[in-house]
Design brief:
- By secondary structure, this protein is α/β, with parallel strands linked by helices.
- The chain has helices spanning 27-40, 59-66, 86-99, 114-120, 128-147, 207-213, 224-240, 264-277, 291-308, 321-325, 333-337; strands at residues 9-13, 45-48, 74-80, 105-109, 154-157, 162-164, 174-175, 180-181, 196-200, 216-219, 249-256, 283-288.
- Helix 5 (128-147) runs parallel beside helix 6 (207-213) and helix 8 crosses helix 9.
- The N and C termini lie far apart (44 Å).
């Protein structure tokens, strides 16, 4: 366990294709092997990038395959909210949370290109600001749908043939700018209540959505001062939206070549320790320049150095991704308001 009063959070990108590696027939086996390294190193979570223009397997499907092969590490696929159906998106993320026994998150992304829009033929690509507004609405309705089953809605009474208490299922009746959802969900409430929502707020257009909806925000910055300013901006935005800024985790996301001239794994450990200790960020998200090489060096060397200094855990102390991040499990909004089906 870290000796700091503010825990250090570490994560890494897992997508085949990072650093020039091309997807191939052994992609899934390689991904499982790398995920096990991260699991052993007690990383908080792994992301898996994806987009409609990216070759390779669907990130949700890949991490659903990884889930039973790992014990504790969180699994966070990129999920595009443009051109997709919010009801199906939330059901898929909820299913990943069940498959992983409470270790799922989702990194919300938008699809701004005309080329990707033409793959679907449903509508032209709207301006990026509108796409992020829509993404925020998808996050909002997803939480409502995850909450639409109360925790004890399942009865599973064989004698009476009753599977669910219908009084504990709720219509969400959500109307957004581009879609509407009646609900309830077709998947029982996930183990975490709400899987963890991650937003990359590198682009300014994504920052309000991040402040309003994210549990974890990824940022990029060239200095600790810039990172601290972004963290403060996001926390203040969360407060303005009526959220507890103490429940927001801000991680520096950085592409790292651990074979370069700059000092390798040791220099990276110093950077992480310095930026975290100074309050600039809550942790670090590694994007490997070369996937296998850099993830192995990160988990085997950089993380070990941080553990030796008492800055990072030696093992996972909880079972869910929310446990790793120190985030509370939310109570169903319908259970607390007394809403009826």
């Amino acid at each position: 366990m870290t000796t700091s009063t503010r825990p250090l959070h570490l994560a890494a990108e897992l997508a085949p294709g990072s650093g020039g590696a091309e997807p191939g027939p052994d992609t899934t086996a390689r991904t499982v092997a790398l995920a096990r390294l991260a699991d052993t190193a007690a990383l908080d979570f792994l992301t898996h990038d994806d987009s409609f223009g990216r070759p390779g397997l669907d990130a949700l499907a890949v991490l659903a395959r990884v889930a039973p092969e790992t014990r504790s590490v969180g699994l966070v696929p990129t999920v595009t909210t443009t051109h997709t159906e919010p009801f199906h998106v939330q059901a898929a993320v909820a299913t990943l949370d069940w498959v992983s026994r409470g270790r799922a998150g989702w990194r919300i992304e938008v699809s701004p290109t005309g080329a990707e829009a033409r793959l679907f033929g449903r509508r032209p690509a709207p301006p990026t600001a509108e796409l992020w507004q829509e993404a925020g609405e998808v996050a909002e309705v997803s939480r409502k749908l995850w909450d639409s089953w109360e925790d004890d809605a399942e009865i599973r009474d064989v004698a009476t043939g009753r599977f669910v208490d219908r009084r504990k299922l709720h219509h969400v009746d959500f109307q957004g700018a581009t879609f509407s959802v009646k609900g309830p969900s077709i998947v029982p409430r996930p183990p975490q209540g709400n899987p963890v929502t991650v937003v990359d707020a590198t682009r300014p257009a994504a920052r309000d959505t991040a402040a309003r909806h994210a549990d974890v925000v990824l940022i990029r910055a060239s200095s600790a001062e810039e990172a601290a300013a972004l963290r403060a901006e996001l926390r203040e935005g969360a407060r303005a939206h009526g959220r507890d800024p103490g429940q927001l985790r801000v991680l520096l996301s950085e592409t790292v070549d651990l074979d370069a001239y700059e000092g390798g794994p040791g220099a990276l450990a110093e950077l992480i320790a310095g930026w975290h200790g100074g309050g600039a960020v809550d942790g670090f998200h590694l994007v490997p320049a070369v996937l296998e090489r850099d993830l192995e060096r990160f988990t085997g060397d950089t993380v070990r150095r941080l553990v030796d200094r008492g800055l990072f855990r030696t093992a996972h102390e909880g079972t869910t991704l929310r446990d790793h991040l120190g985030l509370a499990r939310p109570v169903s909004q319908y259970a607390t308001t007394g809403a009826t089906a």
